[in-house]
Amino acid sequence: MYGGGYIFDEPNKKQLREEEQHDEPEKLAAFEERIAKGEKIEPGDWMPAEYRRQLIRLIEQHAHSEIIGALPEGTWITRAPGFKRKLALIAKVQDEIGHGQLLYNAAETLGKSREAMINDLLSGKSKYSNVFNYPAETWADVAVIGFLIDAAAIVNQVANAKGSYGPYCRALERICYEESFHLKQGHDAFIELATGTPAQRDMLQDALNRWWQPIMHFFGPPDKVSSHSEKLMQWKVKMASNDDMRNQFLDAYVPKVWELGLTLPDPALRKNEATGRWEYTDPDWDEFFRVINGGGPCNAERLQVRKWAEEHGRWVRKALMRPAERKTFPAA
Ligand code: BYC
């Protein structure tokens, strides 16, 4: 077990049990009326136990995605082509960890401790985004992540920042400002490769081909399969369905890839102008479920790195949390 020495309480099981007992119809109706009116729910407000549980699951998974998401790009800091790209990548990776911090804080307002969340990540109990279980093989992978994965994240986060839970919305708003900057640096690296030498274009095309399916998976399973969407949309935690977000992403970004003369590895991909919906070959959903349940190419490696970081950072957390045990220095 990870013994972080954080100051937060263990998940407040008593509070959750009490809420379950008090999910009375009148309270639930008043809660849902507030949400329908567009009011924000704040940590001290009454909320149904299921709303709390779902928010913890979603925000916690999002926080884990940010800190695990720093790993594939992080491996390229030492190899980034040139000082300017290196500086930008260092700043981006640092921002992603900061997003994790904001999101863990938001999830803690719902009663689950940071320590419990980290334990659930390290034990494999909690999920994190499918996309970070693939390797970043070349510099072009970093460009594809920075451009298209950050773009996909922005589509999701700009929508959900208008949702019902105050602390999550405020965290998302701030994250979106930084993500927009990440998108610009990703787009810049992407354009440079797309307009570079034939070898650079080939490298970018190869990265696009490998990342296309994970990116299609990023928005979650199709609406007809998604288990949580209906309730989360009713409660305005998710502001659009998985398929609608995927469609929004395709609408905004496929033309930007095609205009550079690059291709996407799906011959069926086209916009149906009559319906406004994109048509595509269904990505392999068996692979998606395999990857999010621990069977992707890099799942084991990602968790191993996090475990290493937790173990080697323990002395720092201890020193920060128990200042009384610190050796005192003689007065000057
Ligand atoms: N990956 O009922 P559904 C970033 C799971 S990081 C893994 O549709 P839901 C960045 C889902 O958990 C930003 N698992 O789920 C960082 C559920 O399993 P459980 C990442 C997924 O939650 C560094 C099952 O599939 N963004 O941008 O209603 C560098 C059924 O799905 C995924 C967020 O985390 C997935 N992609 O909707 C660069 C946004 N999709 O829990 C960039 C917050 C689904 O029942 N999350 N599952 O066992 C969300 O908005 C929602 O969780 C999703 C899925 C739209 C992703």
TrEMBL record:
Entry EC number(s): 1.14.13.149
InterPro entries: Aromatic_CoA_ox/epox, Ferritin-like, Ferritin-like_SF, PaaA, PaaA_PaaC
Region annotated Disordered, chain positions: 1-26
One Gene Ontology cellular component annotation held by this UniProt entry: cytosol
Record keywords: Oxidoreductase
Pfam families: PaaA_PaaC
Ranges of Basic and acidic residues composition bias in the record: 10-26
GO molecular function term, any single one: phenylacetyl-CoA 1,2-epoxidase activity
Keyword Oxidoreductase annotated: yes
GO BP annotation list: phenylacetate catabolic process
UniProt protein name: 1,2-phenylacetyl-CoA epoxidase subunit A
